[in-house]
Amino acid sequence: MNLQEILDFINYVSNKEQSGKTFSPNQFNTLLPIVSTELFKQKYKHFEDTQEITDDLSAFKVWMGKDGVMPLEIDSNGYALLPTDYFHYSSILYKQVTSNPDCSISIKNRPVDILTDAQWDSRLSCPITQPSLKYPIANFQNNFIRFAPKNIGFVDFVYLKEPIIPVYAYTIDSLTDAVVYDPINSVQLDWGDDSHIEICNLLLVKIGINLKEANLFQYATMKGKEE
Amino acid sequence: MTKEVLTKLVIRFLTGGDNVADTLSKYHPAEVEKYIEMAFNSVIYQICLNAISYNDFGQLDAYCKSFSNVPVICDELRDEYYSILPVSIINLPKNRGIRFISPMKDQRNQFVDRENNASDIYDELEVGMMPDMITYYRENVKLFYDNRMTQELAENGVLQKLIPAYSEWSDEDELPIPGGKDMDIVRTVIELLSKKPNEDLSDNNNTVLKRN
């Protein structure tokens, strides 16, 4: 659903429920980002607990290092800046390239161990588990990640990005005073279609309409038939 | 079985699956490898004791690796030739971690191991009179040769067959674990590590507060 369809649906349900409350475009623009973040936080608490949640959050997954996407670069001090849209870590993989005696190249995947601050200090001085290219470590700091060993270069980084702020762009028809949806300047939700009903539900809760998801699906079917 | 497979086998048993962030610190592969090394050394040690009992040292040959052209260096102060062991070896009774040393091109002229303080005894024995028989003695990672080591032999380096320490095998090397002993190694390591307590990740500053 695009933003117009979501707004239409909410107003449709709201009318059916005879609450008398409908969303103005401004209210919609205010509440939609809040609801989107709320849903994101609800789901993120259970990140990768179930395949359903993984699927729902897959729209927010960013894989730095997949084909055609630059991996995360680590400078000579072992620091890498966190991407600006970074929200939550999922995995870091170092691809160790080694030369074979026959001049061919082997790539070994080395998962990067993410440590707490105290563990980081302890690990650096541990003679058994000291970081190496075979067993690299990382630690999250304010806006950057530090890596050891420092000469790791690049890593594949999978993280969850923050949901984008949706914007319902519109103009007012000067003759009829009607709201005219502007799809070009609107910023759509980055949630997959599966989660739009949940977004609608949360928006309806904000105006005091508490419905079960199944009821919303019924309304969606009814609305589809009426159109 | 390769070293990597053996380590993964133990870790997967202990963690019940993939060793992800939550368990990586508890069962760090480098640490698990150290425990496997101890268990592996113990197996080789038992084989060595068995070999000594039955005077059948051929059993140890399955575990050795050969190293060619190992450099022979002259120690000017002592006026002795020596080599540095190319890898760390398993320390076994009677220096059995060193299986064989000879000139590069003549394996029939095998060098003879002797103890540090045995040169006088050798000199008195007939074996000590043999002009081609080079003896060596060990000082930690160095092997010193007697004065029958010539500059010509030294220039070509020597051939050494050694029983490398577990840490010297690469991840992809097929480990020479005797049949039936692989289960013992895995069982010993799992038994040790399964008693390891969980890492304490709760409030790191507790101790600081108590101290204040």
Please, could you describe this protein's structure?
The complex is a heterodimer of chains A (227) and B (212). With 227 residues, chain A is α+β, with helices and mostly antiparallel strands. Chain A folds into two domains: 3-55 and 165-226, no CATH class; 62-161, no CATH class. Chain A is built from six helices and eleven strands. In chain A, the strands form three sheets. In chain A, strands 1, 2, 4, 5 and 9 form a five-stranded antiparallel β-sheet that branches. A four-stranded mixed β-sheet of chain A has the order 3-8-7-6, covered by helices on one side. The mean pLDDT of chain A is 86. With 212 residues, chain B is α+β, with helices and mostly antiparallel strands. Chain B has two domains: 1-57 and 170-197, no CATH class; 65-163, no CATH class. Helices cover 35% and strands 17% of the residues of chain B. Chain B has helices at 3-15, 21-24, 29-54, 119-124, 151-156, 181-193, 206-211; strands at 65-70, 73-75, 80-84, 98-103, 112-113, 135-139, 142-145, 158-162. In chain B, strand 6 and strand 7 form a beta hairpin. In chain B, helix 1 packs across helix 3 (29-54), helix 1 packs across helix 6 and helix 3 packs across helix 6. Residues 207-212 of chain B have low confidence and may be disordered. The chains are: A alpha+beta (227), B alpha+beta (212). The interface between A and B is small, with 13 and 10 residues.
Give a quick summary of the entry.
The complex is a heterodimer of chains A (227) and B (212). With 227 residues, chain A is an alpha+beta fold. Helices cover 33% and strands 25% of the residues of chain A.
Largest interface: A-B, 13 and 10 residues
Silhouette of chain B? elongated
Mean pLDDT across every amino acid position of chain A: 86
Give the overall pLDDT of chain B as a whole number: 84
What's the main sheet of chain B like? 5 strands, mixed
Query: In DSSP terms, counting alpha (H) and pi (I) runs of 4 or more, how many helices of chain A?
Result: 6
Please state the structural category of chain A. Answer: alpha+beta
Structural class by SSE content of chain B: alpha+beta
